[in-house]
Amino acid sequence: MARPLSGLARHEARWAYVFLLPWLIGLVIFQAGPMVASLVLSLTDYDLISQPKFVGLGNYAAMLEDPKVARAIGNTAFYTVLHVPLALVISLLLALMLNRVTGRAAGFFRTAFYLPSMTPYVAVGVLFLFLLNGQAGLVNQFLGLFGVDGPQWTTDPAWVKPGIVLMSLWNLGSTTIILFAALRNVPRDLYEAAMIDGAGRWQRFRSVTLPMISSALFFVVIINTIAALQMFDQVYTMFFGNQTAQHSYGDSALFYVVYLFQQGFQFLHMGYASALAWILFAIIGIITVVQVRVGNRFVYYEAEPPGGTR
What we know:
The chain is mostly helical. The protein is 68% helix and 1% strand. It has 14 helices and two strands, in the order H-E-E-H-H-H-H-H-H-H-H-H-H-H-H-H. The protein has helices spanning 7-41, 58-65, 67-100, 104-114, 121-131, 138-144, 157-168, 173-184, 188-196, 201-212, 214-229, 233-239, 256-266, 270-295; strands at residues 44-45, 53-54.
């Protein structure tokens, strides 16, 4: 049976709630409140001008008949499936490189690897619009040095999404630093014990490094998946900033959040956009739950064998 709180404990609890109050107010006003409002709006036909008209599940039913929704989901899924594994592998390689740098150069390289993440997403979109230009872009000029005729990254529908994946690899600084921190926390005596047992470099990486950083890998996979499913800024800047231009790539760059933005803020279909947002919320929630249930089987926690539950 729980003991009643003492006078001092009640006093501290009251002050704790006082200090939490600004955050709680912000949560209600800027997060919980808008979420509830969008859920209500998803059941209405609302254009910001006239009064909302209740339509029930009409917006959700309309999504099933909207071919652009399916196309946007397909484009977003394609990008996510390519981006997340590539981002994980490249970030891990960069983190391993950083882990080998010592002395005064270590701080410089850590800063240099992280700096691209500080670049505004809109600026990244504009930058890669020039870098991926099919005629004069630096990417195709680099490929030309090896005799490779580079594709039309920004106009060919078959190459638009791979070009976006290539652009997304610019912002790997945060993931690299997280994995680098995990590598720094791997006990050195484990490597020494493995070397005494005759384990080679690959065996040490597979049997020591990967298990010890598996929780960090698990974390960055989830975070990068969520971010990939919400891809918007760079894509919109590159392909939808000039609404008067004639585009030859069709809907190849139509990502889910881009379509949501168009419905809400270009066509003023706020009810439909709210329904799209809630479907995205459900998709992200389901994928995250699956990742957590599957990923926990391969994550090593201290004092637990791999696959242990927490």
